[in-house]
Amino acid sequence: MTGDHIPVRKLLWVILFGIGFGFIEAGVVVYLRALYYPEGFSFPLKVISGQHLAVELAREASTILVLIAVGVIAGTRSWLRFGFFLVAFGIWDIFYYVWLKLILNWPAALTDWDILFLIPVPWTGPVIAPFLISFLMCVCGIAIIVRVSRGLHFHPTVLSWAVSLGATAIALYSFMSDPSTSLQGTPAPYRYSLLIVSLLLYCVAFVNSCTVSRSRAR
Description:
Elements: H1 8-36, H2 50-74, H3 78-104, E1 113-117, E2 123-126, H4 128-149, H5 158-176, H6 179-184, H7 192-217
Antiparallel strand pairs: 1-2
Helix pairs in contact: 1-3, 2-3, 3-4, 4-7, 5-7
């Protein structure tokens, strides 16, 4: 730790975990694409067999559980745990695409489309969308860890929570608004405006939490 008691060593281990876990995730996708998309990933989505689909859904749920567990183990207080979770999630998701690029030379561009998640319906969108969200998660997560470790307060207000939930709803809508299209053909053009709005709302909620917390600390 530094003189400000920032858990730098823990943070580095969580980052290394995210990098390694991203490779595990990418490895699974390499096998799935070899099985279902030997000619290369494209839309419409292929129908996964019942057993494989059940395993894939369970794997996705387990992935989130593992990321939550890392945050809980790494942090000693609730907001530290949340901060570590954000960092673990963000690094994992970013390096998932880094590893796929190194292994498969995919995506060719950040605007290439991908299937992001399957629970409860297929999430689809350009790679840049989860990449930017994950980057913001890393920034906010590290900021929360630094603030809390230095003894500064971080207590989101009702407004902060409402704005964050609104941002999440908008982001999810941008990915899940028309799941049937991805199963039948090429998805409609992605609405980048929704992504920008959700990112801005997340920033507003975070800044509001820090500003209110700073005034309370005084």
